Amino acid sequence: MTTQLSDNYILNPLLHIKGYQELKGNLRKNDTLAKPTIKKIKEGKLFLLSGRFKDYLINDTIHTFLSCFLESNTLEEASTSFSQKLSVQPKEAQPTINGFFKNMLHQGILISMSEYEEAIQYKMESAATERTAILAIGTKLKDFQIKKVIAIKPKFDIYLAKHKKTKQKVVIKTALLDKTELEKWERRERKAILRQEFQLLKEVAGHPNICQFIKYHKNNGQPFGVMEFIDGLTLGSYLRKKQPSLQEKMLVIQQMFEAIGHVHSCGIVHGDLHKSNFLINKKGQVKLFDFDLANHHDLQEGEIKRMGGVYKYFPPEKIRKNSFYYIKAKADYRSEVYQVAVIAYYLLYERLPFKALSWRQLVKKIKKETPTFDATTPNGEPITKGHLAILNKALSKKPEDRYASGIVLAQKWKGILE
């Protein structure tokens, strides 16, 4: 690999740096580490670099160096940061930095950004395939019985279930709480995240374009949330299978805007708006679901701040300078106006507003370029100037130039349709 000062590198996401706070529960049980080593970990002089197949003990200097790559960074930027943290001159630290960097690249501890997405995908797939589902088919949870595994995720599982009396199909989500693998704080955090997701889903309940909250339960210490089962198509499948007319697309977009407008009217942000989090049922009804990354717009006391999403939908102000995979802050009303407008653009033109071969090119386009607004759909149907003007404003680079919330966006769109 040819290293350039302008190239970006990051800590391999398959590795984790653990200090005393993360390790103290295991240190009490550990009989392989010498007492002087444990003492140094407590003092912050040693850290554990933990991987799937191998763990490394690293000293505080290497820990400081690697901490410069917790987010995407160039070697030049990391060198400056490292020197400042150690209070030494950059020229004095450069031989040490070069040696660390070469060794970390060789061992795969640091990787280039071109390798990062592949590593993230591998991490997700590994987490999903290395364990079986938490609940077996046929398991009874209160009034429900598990019928099918829908998804096995790193921290949560999702199931299709039926109510034992009414036979109503529902979706159940539960957390992985393995006491043999997880610390108490990790189990407590997962329970809190699951409870928060379903509490927020309950707060937006009642709108026809939002997946409905049904119940939140505990079953022998295992918490689970119950929500509406949506038998429908993703937006991508809808376009391919139904080949909707412009008028049908416009009505779908209106329902999407109504959904996020209602969420915002409840003082909540969804946190993860992209085309796969909207489904269209057999009646043509749009449903917004997956509130895993939702928050109150103004965080309440004790609320867990959630951040994430799909990078192609991030607005310019949320993308960090060097990486798509870390965003600056949680979602807000104006950022979600942008994101739902990206989805509307996709529905109209059957493509996303920005496309590039690399993440660097894509982030440059999102930050600097204006989307192309064709006058017609791919089928040649003319789009009104009023609707294009609304999308153009919603996709503004500056948050203050967009609509203040999904409420306003839905009202504007509906006004033209009528």
Structure in words:
The protein is an alpha+beta fold. The protein folds into 3 domains: 8-115, Alpha-Beta Complex (Outer Surface Protein A, domain 3); 140-228, Phosphorylase Kinase, domain 1; 232-417, Transferase(Phosphotransferase), domain 1 (Orthogonal Bundle). It is 40% helix and 18% strand. The protein has helices at residues 20-27, 35-42, 60-67, 75-86, 90-106, 113-129, 184-203, 235-242, 246-265, 333-349, 359-368, 385-394, 406-417, and strands at 8-11, 16-18, 46-50, 55-59, 73-74, 110-112, 140-141, 144-152, 156-163, 169-175, 213-219, 222-228, 232-234, 268-269, 278-281, 286-288, 295-296. A hairpin with a 4-residue loop joins strand 15 and strand 16 (286-288).
Summed up, the domain count is 3
What's the CATH architecture of the largest domain? Orthogonal Bundle
Report the structural category.
alpha+beta
Number of strands: 17
Distinct helical segment count: 13
Shape: globular
- Separation of termini? 59 Å
Helix content: 25-40%
How big a fraction of the residues is strand?
Answer: 15-25%
Largest sheet: 6 strands, antiparallel
Topology as H/E string? EEHHEEHEHHEHEEEEHEEEHHEEEEHHHH
Sheet with most strands: strand arrangement: 7-8-9-10-12-11
- CATH homologous superfamily descriptor of the largest domain: Transferase(Phosphotransferase) domain 1
Rg over CA atoms: 24 Å
Low-confidence runs of at least 5 consecutive residues: none
